[in-house]
């Protein structure tokens, strides 16, 4: 009569099985297992000039009637990006005239492309693979790991990545929703010289973005001489890509990043190089277009209120993202304004 197998083998194989399941669940979460519902189709109002329906060539991508929107796409923020796209289309008077330009890391661009096509079958868009190695060597570590993500720097390279015929673009972060027509934002006048427009905040402590090393070095601190420099948030910008190319601004930003690697002249992520190059020389945008900071306090996780005045765009910049807080059943009051744009299909029916 054969002896029963020793008991510990059974435990071991069970342990290995559990470990495998755990590893599998982690790797599948890293790629996009998120399933999104299909958004309804949005139609142009009768007053819109129509642009070509299907984008097959670069020429059609370049229509002057189009509103061009640039965003980054990655697995971590995909749920936010999908909500942002949905909100843009829903509040647009000419949704069929919006062309999206998505920048994603080369490794995941195919998966992300199909996710977007499935949720928005009628969307005019193109995905541009971004070689993250180009920028990863330039990134200095900052307070928050999220700010060190190479894709955070893709906005520096839009002028090189997008077709040369795309002149003006609205750049949007993935943690925001619009509640107004993006065409109004896209039409922001840039004047004779400005390369970009963004809402400015002149009461923010501008000096705190740069280190004592920067301010104590005259050849560096003189950068801001004669410029009325204010903080602006790079999550919502209108950019003239033609002026950007003409002025070779990607190189200018990269030079500051290279200096930062050598002597640490600023603290936070991808914003300071933008401030160094553009602060004081940007066209103004009404604050209604970037009600930012709704992600709350980076240290204490406090909920934020809206700034006084009208609202066209809600931006959950900061540490707390609305989808994370909603999933954890610990939402801030304003997260309820994000929820209607969430197209994620829940795996299980939620208990009422």
From TrEMBL:
Coiled-coil residues: none
GO molecular function: glycosyltransferase activity
Keyword Transmembrane helix found: yes
Keyword terms, alphabetized: Glycoprotein, Glycosyltransferase, Membrane, Signal, Signal-anchor, Transferase, Transmembrane, Transmembrane helix
UniProt keyword annotation of Glycosyltransferase present: yes
Compartment list: Endomembrane system
Enzyme class: transferase
Pfam families linked to this entry: Glyco_transf_8 (PF01501)
Entry membrane topology: Single-pass type II membrane protein
GO cellular component terms listed in the entry, alphabetical order: Golgi apparatus
InterPro entries reported for this sequence: Glyco_trans_8, Glycosyltrans_8_dom-fam, Nucleotide-diphossugar_trans
Location, primary (coarse class): membrane
E.C. no: 2.4.1.-
Annotated signal peptide: 1-30
Superkingdom as given in the UniProt entry: Eukaryota
Gene3D superfamilies: Spore Coat Polysaccharide Biosynthesis Protein SpsA, Chain A
Pathway: Glycan metabolism; pectin biosynthesis
PANTHER family, per the entry: GLYCOSYLTRANSFERASE 8 DOMAIN-CONTAINING PROTEIN (PTHR13778), HEXOSYLTRANSFERASE (PTHR13778:SF59)
Family to which this protein belongs: Belongs to the glycosyltransferase 8 family.
Name of the protein: Hexosyltransferase
Source organism (scientific name): Morella rubra (Chinese bayberry)
């Amino acid at each position: 009569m054969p002896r029963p197998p020793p008991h510990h083998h059974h435990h071991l194989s069970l342990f290995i099985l559990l470990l495998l399941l755990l590893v599998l669940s982690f790797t599948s979460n890293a790629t996009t297992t998120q399933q999104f519902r299909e958004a309804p189709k949005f139609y142009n109002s009768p007053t819109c000039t129509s642009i070509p329906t299907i984008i097959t060539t670069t020429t059609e991508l370049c229509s002057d009637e189009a509103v061009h929107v640039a965003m980054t796409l990655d697995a971590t923020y995909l749920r936010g990006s999908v909500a942002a796209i949905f909100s843009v289309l829903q509040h647009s008077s000419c949704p069929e005239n919006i062309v999206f330009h998505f920048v994603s890391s080369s490794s995941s661009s195919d998966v992300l492309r199909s996710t977007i096509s499935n949720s928005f079958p009628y969307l005019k868009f193109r995905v541009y693979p971004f070689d993250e190695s180009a920028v990863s060597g330039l990134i200095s570590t900052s307070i928050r790991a999220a700010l060190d993500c190479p894709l955070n720097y893709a906005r520096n390279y839009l002028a090189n990545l997008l077709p040369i015929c795309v002149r003006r673009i609205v750049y949007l972060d993935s943690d925001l929703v619009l509640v107004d027509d993006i065409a109004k934002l896209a039409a922001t006048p840039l004047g004779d010289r400005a390369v970009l427009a963004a809402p400015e905040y002149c009461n923010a402590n501008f000096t705190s973005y740069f280190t004592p090393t920067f301010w104590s070095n005259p050849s560096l601190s003189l950068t801001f001489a004669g410029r009325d420099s204010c903080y602006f948030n790079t999550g919502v910008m209108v950019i003239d890509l033609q002026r950007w190319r003409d002025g070779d601004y990607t190189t200018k930003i990269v030079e500051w990043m290279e200096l930062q690697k050598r002597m640490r002249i600023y603290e936070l992520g991808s914003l300071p190089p933008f401030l160094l190059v553009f602060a004081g020389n940007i066209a103004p945008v009404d604050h209604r277009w970037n009600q930012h900071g709704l992600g709350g306090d980076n240290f204490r996780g406090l909920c934020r209120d809206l700034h006084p005045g009208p609202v066209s765009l809600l931006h959950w910049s900061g540490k707390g993202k609305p989808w994370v807080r909603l999933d954890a059943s610990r939402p801030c009051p304003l997260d309820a304004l994000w929820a209607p744009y969430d197209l994620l299909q829940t795996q299980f029916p939620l208990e009422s």
